[in-house]
Amino acid sequence: MNEEKQRSAKPKKPFKGKGFLSTVSAGIIGSVLTLTVLPHTDYYEDLTQPKVEQSAVSSSQTGSSGNSDITPTQVSAGTSGDIASIVEDASQSIVGVVNYQQQGNRFTGASQEAAAGTGSGVLFKKEGNSAYIITNNHVIEGASKIEVSLYDGEKTEAELIGADPLTDLAVLKIDGKYADNLLEVGDSNALRAGEQVIAIGNPLGLDLSRTVTQGIVSAVDRTISVDTSAGETELNVIQTDAAINPGNSGGALLNSKGELIGINSLKISNSGVEGLGFAIPSKDFMPIVSEIIETGKVERPYIGIGMTNLADVPRSYLRGLPDKVDSGVVVASIDNTSAAAKAGIKEGDVITELNGTQVENAADLRRQLYADLKVGDKIELTVFRGEEEETISLTLTSNAMVN
Predict the structure, then answer these.
(1) pLDDT, tens digit, for every residue of 338-389?
(2) Which among 168, 277, 311, 370 could disulfide-bond with 244, CB atoms 3.0 to 4.6 Å apart, if both were Cys?
(3) CA dihedral of residues 129, 134, 135, 137 (deg, nearest 10)
(4) Looking at the domain assignment, is residue 237 inside a domain?
(5) Could you count the other beta carbons within 10 Å of the beta carbon of residue 4?
(6) Residue 58 domain flag
(7) What is the DSSP string of 194-228?
(8) Residue 75 covered by a domain
(9) Residue 4 phi/psi, 5° resolution?
């Protein structure tokens, strides 16, 4: 289930566009389906090379105001470097996540729930009678029911607490009686290239559940541009050569102490390319997860526009735009109740700067917006409308206000 559906039972109607921008707008609105899990098509392709796959099996940097003071129960992982002991204990905290979706019968017209894909998850926190699981948003997106397969083979239904497509994170809740073993969250800031890491997950489905692969940290703080159901964004990730395959999404990347320092999420799958997997580091997922557990969502500043990269729009559709304008975003749609609409921004406008800083593309605008600004801040956008350049001021509202 996507983030917008979690926030409100009455989503806004799609914005109306014209001509090419209408098509672009439809593509943006329709992108909520691009990571929906389908049979054996669990990954998406980035629009540019190299091809990046989100690694759920199918039947995919932003700041946050949340705190990161979750205190998980520690798993006794043996001595540092004792891989067999680490794996034996940590595997009990790794679960299978099955995404069920409503599927119609073309012969009878009836609809029924069917397993649409599988991924992995990590038990990391127990509070009262509840236990919490971290997984990827693309593992559970579009689900009408989520089932968790536990270490001993027992299955239970999970409740989706909240999800954040832009960081590809989601939090599930199950009965605390199923959480005898929890992983301790480690400090990904302490990682160095060359350190040993272990990946545990369910590649290619639950038949190969809790498969263990070993490798090293190939690099820290990589930036990967990805398309999500909420738009293009950039993820800060740990790069590893530990094998990460379809179905590993949402699984654990452990350090040599058996601590959870990453959530396995992506891989590069070009022909001839091996050993390029990526995990969301704990320093980034913990604030997001904390906020989801506390509020059920992640609050961010909201302008109220759908956008596409200027580079992706033929110049013939942007009549009058000066040749010198070679970067920015095109406004493809507008929320008519938003700050953008009230400030006079129109479809077809090209945004080139935010508070005097150049905007390269949609991912860059989101990065500036989420990393440096907060709800209630006043911003200035440099906008081209044809050949005319103007500065438009508006006050940022909250995405949580969108119904």
Answers:
(1) 999 999 999 999 999 999 999 999 888 988 998 889 999 999 999 999 999 9
(2) 277
(3) 90
(4) no
(5) 16
(6) no
(7) T-EEEEEE-TTSGGGTTEEEEEEEEEEEEEEEEEE
(8) no
(9) -60, -40
List of residues 6+ apart from 84 with CB closer than 8 A: 78
Distance CA 342, CA 344 (A): 5
pLDDT digits (tens, 9 = 90+) for 18-32: 444 444 443 332 222
Q: What are the residue numbers of the active site? A: 138, 168, 249
Q: Where is the domain boundary, 153, 178, 203?
A: 178
Position 155, amino acid: K
**Within 10 Å of residue 145's Cβ, how many Cβ atoms?**
14
| Residue 309: strand, helix, or coil | strand
Q: Look at 19-33, 47-61, 172-186, 277-291 and tell me which has the smallest mean pLDDT.
A: 19-33
Q: Give the domain extent around 173.
A: 83-178
Burial class (CB in 10 A: 0-12, 13-18, 19+), 18: exposed
236: closest CA among 250, 225, 249?
Answer: 225
- The strand pair at 350-354 and 196-201 is best described as unpaired
What does the DSSP 8-state code read for residue 73?
Answer: P
> 272: which residues sit within 8 A by CB, 6+ positions away?
none
How far apart are the C-alpha atoms of 58 and 38, rounded to whole Å? 5
- Give how many domains the chain has, as a whole number: 2
